[in-house]
Structure formats: C-alpha cells, structure tokens
Amino acid sequence: MARLVELLQEFMAGGKRIRPVFAVLGWQAAGGMSDMAAVIRVAASLEMFHAFALIHDDVMDGSDTRRGRPTMHRRFAGDGDDDRTERYGMSAAVLLGDLAFTWSDCLLHTAGLTSEQASAVVPLINDMRTEVMLGQYLDLRATGELTDDVDATLTVNRYKTAKYTIERPLHIGAAIAGADASTLAACTAFALPLGEAFQLRDDLLGVYGDVRDTGKSRLDDLRAGKNTTLVALALRHGDATHKDRLRTLVGDPALDESGAEEVRTIFAATGARDAVERMIDDRYRLALRALADSPFTPDAVTALEHLATTATRRNA
Amino acid sequence: MARLVELLQEFMAGGKRIRPVFAVLGWQAAGGMSDMAAVIRVAASLEMFHAFALIHDDVMDGSDTRRGRPTMHRRFAGDGDDDRTERYGMSAAVLLGDLAFTWSDCLLHTAGLTSEQASAVVPLINDMRTEVMLGQYLDLRATGELTDDVDATLTVNRYKTAKYTIERPLHIGAAIAGADASTLAACTAFALPLGEAFQLRDDLLGVYGDVRDTGKSRLDDLRAGKNTTLVALALRHGDATHKDRLRTLVGDPALDESGAEEVRTIFAATGARDAVERMIDDRYRLALRALADSPFTPDAVTALEHLATTATRRNA
Predict the structure, then answer these.
(1) Which of A8, A156, A276, B27 has its Cβ near the most Cβ atoms within 10 Å?
(2) pLDDT category, A286, cuts 50, 70, 90?
(3) pLDDT tens column, A23-80
C-alpha cells in the first residue's frame, strides 16, 4: 500500500496541472467568489483522474517513458524483461490506475459541494469520463491502421483532448460557480478550437520535441503507429513512395532515430508539418475570438488568453 | 460505442448477482421499507462495478474464459494471436473495464439517494473499492511466488472476497435503510466468516470444479500460480517431494490436465483438500451463529441463512 501511494505521489508530482487550472479559471470566468475551497478540491480530483488516465494510456500504448521517467508499468516490472515480469508490471500499473480513479472519486465526494453544485457538476464529470474513454477507444482502433482520413483524426482529438482537457474542466469549474447555459456555451466556443490546437501541438511535439523538454521519447508515437492528423495529412498529400515509406515506418516497434528522421523528411516534403502549424494557428485565433465574445470576468479572460498562447506555442 | 455496450451487456448477463442480492438483504436486515428503488439502483451500481473488477482481473491473470465464454480481452483480440492483436485485446478490455467503472458511478449518482443516505453510503463504497484493489494488489504480488503462509492467503481472501463480496454490500444496503453501528457490526460478524468460506469454496472449485458448472477452466488458477489457501496448506504439510512438484507444476503456464491431476493427488495426500473443507465448515457455522445473535429482521435472517448454505455448498 505504502509503495503504491509513493509511486502515485511521485507520478503526480511531474504533472502540468492543466485540467485543474482550467477548472479554477472556469469557476473564475463564471464569477466564482466564495467557494474557492470546493473548486480546488474538485480540481484536485480531476488531476487524480488524469493520473489514472495516463497510467492506463501508457499501458495500452506500451510507452516506456512519461514525464521524463519510466512509465508505471516499467517501474513495477523493474529490471526484468521476461514475460512474467512484463505481465506483473502491466497488471500492477492497471491496478494503480484503478486506485487513482477510486481516489479521484473520494476527492470529489469530500469536496464539500452543496447539493445544487453536486447535481450540476457530477453529470459533467461522468460525461467527461465517458468521453475521454470513448476517445481512447477510437484512438486504439485507429492505431496501427493508418488512414488519410484527416476528419477522423480530428474527431479522436476532440473527444480525447479538446473536451477532456479544456472544455469539461472549464464547464466543471463554471458549474461550481452556478454558470448558466450561455456561459457554458461560451466555454465550449473557446475550449474546442483551443483543445484541438493543443493536441495538434502535442502531435508535433511527439515527433519533433526534445525529450529534455517533453519528458517522453519522440519515437513512442511513431513506433506505436499513432494515426495523428500529421500522419493523415502526409498520407493524403504524399506521392506513392511517401505513402509506402510511411506505412512501413510508422507503427514499426523497432523504429530508430534514422527511420524517424526519414518520417520527418516526408512530413516536410508533403507539407503536412506546415499544414498542422496553420491548423494550430487558425484554431488559436478562433479561440481568442470566442474569448473576446464571451461573458467571462475580465481577470479570467486575461488568464485564458495567456493559457491559449502557452498551450499552442509550448515546447513541452 | 455500440460494440462496447453490447459486449458489456453480454458479459453482465452471465453474472450471479451476489453483491446486489447482499445489498438488498442488508437493506432488508436493517428494516428497510420505503426506499426499495434506491437500494435496487445502488445494487445495480455494485454489479456494474463488479463487471469492471472482473474484466480487469481477467486481463491481469491472463484468463481465457469467464462465465463459460471467452474473456473480454480474448473477445477483442478475436482470432489473431500475434503481439499486436494481443495488445489490442488487452487494451480494449482495460478500457471496457474503465467504462464499466465510470458507469457504475453514473448508476450510483442517479440512484435517488437522499443526502443523508448518500453521506452514509458513498464512503462505504469508496472503502469497498479501495479494499478490493488492495486485495488484488496483494494477490498479484503473491502470484507466482508460492509460500506456505496460510495466514497471508487468508488476508488476501478477506480483502479481495469477504469484505468486497459480502460485508460491504450488506453494509451499503443497511446504510440505505439507516442502520446504526450495532447493525453494521452484526453484518460484519456474519459476513467475514461467510465470505472467507465463499472464497475457500471458490479455491476448491478452481481446481476441482466442472467447467460446465463454473464457466471457467479448472487449469487457470493453477497455471496462473495462484497462491490459494489450498496451495499454502499443501506446501506446509507436504514432504520434500510434494513441495518440489507443487513448485514445478503450480504456475506453469503450459500445465495440462495430467499435471493438474498430479496437483490434485498432492492436495489429497497432504490433507490440504480436507483441511479446506473443514475451514469452510467452521466458518459456515460461525456465520450462522452470528446471524442468530443479530438484530436483523426475521425475513432477512431466513434469506441470509439460505444464502450462507448455497454460497458454501455450491458447485458453480
């Protein structure tokens, strides 16, 4: 038990706290004043839920590093690399994720929400959880079967990231402050384009980022065969040789840095990398426009503008 | 999404509904009268949570059958048996379990509990979840490292089964009926010995049961190297040859029926099988005595007596 708590603490210490920040800003945007303690606790519950989601995602993707350290299933497996040790590492990580899910519920249940707040917030949390899991399911089905269906990649992006990382946390915070439907709609108008841009940046960082900044290997996404928007665009606009090479390289579990460099060359040659940069920029502008049109409090607008910039221009 | 719901429905159709039954009986035992709808919904939430737990347990144990059908990770993997298909099956099953967990929360949150009921029930549910996960963690750590520590196996049994399957469902139902501390204590006095007996019967069925009754292969527990009380007793009381053979056979993923028959012969020769039968009987009697001393309503006592008998004498 102590070992599990220790590993989870260590894991959570490395997070960027994006969802808690958006929850608190949603609360502030909707004019939250007197219930800061409740929103902070709910925000902590979101971060604990996110620990669950990442630990399980890493098991599903078979990733070796996260936040600059070995992933949880690798930690549990230790130095062994036989089948039994691998299975133990995977199992213990699934279980640690399950515990984090349980404890995120404990944090939610002890947040001190009034019954009005709870009846507004709890359905949003349940929706958020179902959405991110369905997004992950779509992602899982798409992984390893590369297609040039750019829209399909954007749908996964919307469920797995835009709604989960930005829209729902904003909604949840706003609901604690008693937000009406138009405030929630303004959260959505800002969150979805920004969230898509955030994931598109993540897709780029997964291939071009520096492990010293991102904490994860820039071979993982390519090895796992992630069907990102970047990959779909390259498949759509590449010639026959590009397509053939991409289908060989992306999803090869033994891909090395020279193979990854060839993939990067194809992303440049097909214009896919530039196209993703333009998509990020378009969405960033849409998000800022939605913010300007929103009924949010001025302090919240300033903070959200700042976050929109860092979320789309970041290198980590 | 439709596919996920369909598989989960199919999976849940095969369950024995043990935890829901104990929840409703706990409610009845504590004099529940007017809130049958709420306890039924909470009971459904427990069954949905149990689907989560079983789907994840099967992934961790690498089991092939459950409830007479292929386990969920096997269903998702389909006919393929390469690494990528295996990983997809495992990942999709982890995710389906996660969805069942989420949906068990939805059922709980829409059960229509009053705020008094919710504040009594929710902490019990959180405790139950943490307990079963810690029990599973202990089980995981013990699996593959056989010991003759009979007490350690009974500790896992208590957390993983006795508390999870019987004590907590009774508590949860009783709390909905507004049970006081002495009624909850009476639930514990009945539930722990009965739950231990239930698991000991399960351990025996895992080795001696008929797949047509139990729905699971009687090679799975042995192949997985489960350190049951039965195995611990045989290791404690066996001679050097018995111990040596047990350590070779239990935990061998390729164990066949003739190897299993040899293990059964050792369980008989060391007296382990008879000892487990006696332990079941002792605990069954303790449970009946606790029931006789309890403040439960007469109808509930009759129903619980009946369940105690079927839970310890069952063949499925």
Answers:
(1) B27
(2) very high
(3) 999 999 999 988 899 999 999 999 999 999 999 999 998 888 888 889 999 999 988 7
Q: Could you report the predicted ipTM of this complex, rounded to two decimals? A: 0.90
Structure tokens belonging to residue B38: 């709420």
Question: Does the structure show a pLDDT above 80 at B90?
Answer: yes
Nearest to B140 among A88, A109, A115 (CB): A88
Out of A205-219, A274-288, B156-170, least confident range? A205-219
Q: Do B109 and A129 count as a contact with CB atoms less than 8 A apart?
A: no
Is residue B79 predicted with pLDDT exceeding 90? no
Q: Which residues pair with B69 in a beta bridge?
A: B66
Residue B71: inside a domain: yes
Among A3, A95, A124, most B C-beta atoms within 10 A, so best to mutate, is A95
Tell me if A137 and B95 make a contact (CB, 8 A cut-off): yes
Q: What is the pLDDT of residue A316?
A: 77
**Which site among A1, A84, A137, A168 would you substitute to test the B interface, given the most B Cβ atoms closer than 10 Å to its Cβ?**
A137
- Binary contact (A4, B115; C-beta < 8 A): no
| Selected residue of B98, B125, B130, B156 to mutate for chain A interface (largest A Cβ count, 10 A) | B98
pLDDT of B101 strictly over 90: yes
Q: Using an 8 Å Cβ cutoff, are B143 and B226 in contact?
A: yes
B109–A126 C-beta distance less than 8 A: yes
Q: Radius of gyration (Cα) for chain A, nearest Å? A: 20
Cβ within 8 Å of residue B174, ≥6 positions away: B26, B27, B29, B30, B32, B183, B184, B187
Closest residue in A to B132 (Cα) is: A99
How many pairs of residues across A and B have Cβ atoms under 8 Å apart? 85
Calculate mean pLDDT across residues B97-124. 96
Position B259 pLDDT exceeds 80: yes
* Structure token digits, residue A163: 């709604």
DSSP string, B194-228: HHHHHHHHHHHHHHH--HHHHSS-TTHHHHHT---
User: Six-digit token pair at B20?
Assistant: 């829901």
Q: Which residues in chain A are closer than 8 Å to B130, comparing Cβ atoms?
A: 99, 102-103
The first and second tokens of residue B111, run together, are 């059960």
Could you give the C-alpha distances from B165 to A214, A267, A314, in angstroms and in order? 43, 54, 48
Residue B302 lies in a domain: no
Domain tally for chain A? Answer: 1
pLDDT at A267: 97
| Residue B316 maps to a domain | no
Q: What is the pLDDT of residue B250?
A: 95
- The predicted-structure confidence for A212-263, as pLDDT tens digits, reads as follows 888 888 898 899 888 999 999 999 999 999 999 999 999 998 999 999 999 9
Q: Could you tell me the residue range of the domain that residue A157 belongs to? A: 2-313
CATH number at residue A48: 1.10.600.10
Q: Name the minimum distance, in Å, from the CA of A115 to any CA of chain B.
A: 8
Contact A141, A224 (CB under 8 A): no
Interface of B with A (CB under 8 A): 1, 4, 56, 59-60, 62, 84, 87-88, 90-92, 94-95, 98-99, 101-103, 105-106, 109, 115, 122-123, 126, 129-130, 133-134, 136-137, 140, 144
Does residue B300 lie within any of the structural domains? no
Which chain A positions have a beta carbon within 8 Å of B123's beta carbon? 109
